[in-house]
């Protein structure tokens, strides 16, 4: 049992690291191409597909390790572990990015948000624009960003592993 627990932790760690590093690579590409402030919708789709792939493959590895047997609990534990590790890596990268690589990231992001509001809602009054901008600035920053990243990572990990585990689970006959 101890060997199985170690292997499960190793699978979560490995796939969490792979997913985290892949997320960093996607962000570096977005930064290098100048799309960090206004990414195309396809970036989210690619990120989601990569997340699904790593979590499902990690769950598949656990199933193979157990001789073809998989409980929903094991699938959930594996998926959430992978998501948690990749989320922590994303937070560390985000802190490095916003403190050293692009220290004025949040200010530039606020400006992009302001311009989007002006374009998408031309009938907004100055008070409405100010309220929207103020709300956006309250929702940005390292603390809120880290909390939202970890919550988003865990929620997506939960959903993916719940669906994948439900499909792949197999009990002893």
Write a structural description.
It is a single chain. With 173 residues, the protein is an all-alpha fold. It has one domain (2-168). Helix content is 82%, strand content 0%. The protein is built from 6 helices and no strands. The protein has helices at residues 2-32, 41-65, 72-101, 105-120, 126-138, 142-168. α1 (2-32) runs parallel beside α3 (72-101) and α4 packs antiparallel against α5 (126-138). The relative contact order is 0.16. The model has no long low-confidence stretch (mean pLDDT 92).
List the helices and strands and how they pair.
Layout: H1 2-32, H2 41-65, H3 72-101, H4 105-120, H5 126-138, H6 142-168
How much of the residues is beta strand, in percent?
under 5%
Number of domains: 1
Q: What summary fits the major beta sheet?
A: none
Q: Which structural class should the secondary elements be placed in?
A: mainly alpha
Shape: elongated
Q: What proportion of the residues is helical, as a percent range?
A: over 70%
Features:
6 helices; 173 residues; single chain; mainly alpha; elongated
Quick description:
With about 170 residues, this protein is an all-alpha fold. It is built from six helices and no strands. The chain has one domain.
């Amino acid at each position: 049992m101890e060997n199985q627990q170690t292997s499960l932790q190793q699978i979560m760690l490995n796939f969490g690291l792979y997913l985290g590093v892949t997320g960093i690579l996607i962000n570096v590409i977005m930064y290098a191409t100048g799309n960090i402030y206004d990414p195309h919708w396809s970036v989210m789709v690619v990120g989601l597909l990569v997340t699904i792939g790593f979590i499902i493959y990690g769950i598949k590895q656990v199933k193979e390790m157990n001789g073809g047997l998989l409980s929903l609990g094991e699938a959930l534990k594996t998926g959430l572990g992978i998501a948690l590790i990749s989320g922590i890596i994303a937070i560390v990268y985000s802190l490095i990015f916003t403190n050293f690589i692009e220290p004025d990231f949040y200010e530039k992001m606020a400006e992009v948000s302001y311009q989007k509001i002006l374009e998408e809602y031309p009938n907004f009054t100055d008070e409405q624009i100010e309220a929207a901008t103020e709300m956006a600035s309250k929702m940005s920053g390292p603390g809120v960003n880290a909390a939202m990243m970890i919550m988003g990572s865990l929620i997506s990990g939960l959903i993916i592993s719940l669906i994948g585990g439900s499909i792949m689970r197999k009990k002893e006959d």
